[in-house]
Amino acid sequence: MIYTCYLDDSKDQNQTKLLVSAGFIGSKDDWVSLRLAWNKRLKLDGLKYFKSSEFKMLEGEFAKFRTAAYPPPQGRDKAQKIRSDLQEIVRERPRIRGIGVSIPLAQYAEIYDRPESKGLLPSDPYQAALASVMYETVKRLRTWTEDSRVAFVHDESEDFPHLYSAFAKFKEANPETAEFIEAFRPLDDKKHPPLQAADMIANYALGIGIKGLETSGGMKLAVSEMNESIGLLAHWSKKYMLSVLRANLIARGKPIPLDIHDFKDDYKYTHR
């Protein structure tokens, strides 16, 4: 069986705090069912697609909810009802599971600037998050079945060629994982409900992640929405990034700096 994992990215407005790669994995039958229900729900309110940024600002497809026909707070309440109904469509399909990885940008830049990091970590932290999601997706897929493969689909953009290059490098560096990956291709999120669902979970993970970064208790992914649909949300802490650097240095037979010589390779907070 070929599963499909639909992915999207999300970053804070100034792209200085956090980035997320996240999405949902499901079978062909799961996605056919979701597409029908998703489009039917959007059609009820005359919407062509769902996009988190337009939902938040009541722009684009959600602009109608800022008109005189929807005086505050009716427009916001209506938009929230649509989003909640779409989340319920995902929840009603329990075999569709969410997965995501977040990376704090300041801490990643700090690790990347270390002299021993050159050539070992990607300059674009999103490529690191995407590779991590692919690894974790295959890891979980193999607990379901040994005979299945997964195809990854990402929202198309100008950056997709660079993402595909990162995908190719990931497969080359991880041959055992690559055996279970079928493809990586772009699609238009405005035409494909699974990518709209990926946009929803990526944006949600970004929001709770930023809240976690801004609290004194540190990164705590306190998931409330879509809780039943999310299988994994992982956060790259500074210690985990250093453990990734250490693992790469070991794999290439390079010296290990004293400050990370005794690091373990399991520093990562996960929602589940």
Topology (SSEs and partners):
Blueprint: E1 2-11, E2 18-26, H1 28-44, H2 52-57, H3 74-91, E3 97-104, H4 105-112, H5 125-144, E4 149-155, H6 160-173, H7 175-178, E5 181-187, H8 193-214, E6 230-235, H9 238-251, E7 269-270
Parallel strand pairs: 1-4, 3-6, 4-5
Antiparallel strand pairs: 1-2, 2-3, 6-7
Number of helices: 9
Distance between the termini: 25 Å
* Spatial strand order of the main sheet: 5-4-1-2-3-6-7
The fraction of residues in strands falls at: 15-25%
Describe this structure in words.
By secondary structure, the chain is of the alpha/beta class. It contains nine helices and seven strands. It has one domain: Ribonuclease H-like superfamily/Ribonuclease H (Nucleotidyltransferase, domain 5). A hairpin with a 6-residue loop joins strand 1 and strand 2. Helix 1 runs antiparallel to helix 3 and helix 5 packs across helix 6. The longest helix has 22 residues. The radius of gyration is 19 Å and the shape is globular.
Keywords:
272 residues, Nucleotidyltransferase, domain 5
Short characterization:
With 272 residues, the protein is α/β, with parallel strands linked by helices. The protein contains nine helices and seven strands.
